[in-house]
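User: I'll paste a sequence; please echo it back and then give the predicted structure.

Assistant: Echoing your sequence first, then the prediction.
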Amino acid sequence: MFQTERRRRENLVENIHPKHGIVWTPYIMLIPTLVLLGVFTFFPFIKTIVLSFFLTNAQGKAVKFVGFQNFIRILPSKSFLNSLWLTIKFALVVGVGTFVISMFLSLLCTNIVRGSRVYEVMYTIPMAIASAPASIIWFFILTPGTGVLNSLLHTKILWLSNPKIAIYTIAMVTIWASIGVSVIFLMTGFRNVPAELQESAIIDGATKLQRIKHILIPVASPQIFFVIFLNIVNSFRAFAQIRLLTNGGPMDSTSTLIYSLYNMAFHDNRFESACVLSLVLFLIIFLVTRIQFLFEHKVNY
């Protein structure tokens, strides 16, 4: 039996590290994935970079090379600076709000008790609803005259029509839609904490807050790190709720970068301008993630 097992292992090693030639099977199996990445990721990205240096026609085809003129024309403009500021503000509100609420709810669900499954399902239901139907539901909730929210609060707040609060209303909807996924990851991290650690802390007289600070959060730091990264990226890519609830208004108060590039490409047929905004958005997300990974050494894997 031992000789059979040893022979099987030797054959496995031989398949992975052959003595003669190269095993092509792994590379062949990667071809479908590489083709999909090339067609839907790398090719559009390269084409976006190329078109940002050209003037384009209504069909999005390059007609004249202008170099960096598109960047010089767009980046100092008032509309771009307004969209950039709205995007940063929106990302901060959504990122911080989603993380704080998700942390609170996941801590409540850490201990499995009778009936806790009901609350877990309630907290994670938003992740099962797509952005478009969720936005329609919130539209009826936030409608000034017949909306459910104003009826409950006995107010007449123009949630989607007031330029001062519209961006925060969209952020509230985005936070609600993002909580489910964050709660699942954080709750999983907290429940993976060994019971012996918590029992030892209780015996030593540690309070609930001390156990959260010195045991739960450090042990679940990989999940916390991932949730922060996920919420930041998703906040920069939020589009459906803006498109369906405010359409960038009122007075461009919810026109973030991703909505502005959509508007330029598909309403104004200015594809070169949309490409410039796409590259700016890519650079912002890239820089944010690089800054975030500078703190990866604080994560306990």
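The chain has two domains: 2-51, 74-298. The first strand starts at residue 54 and ends at 56.
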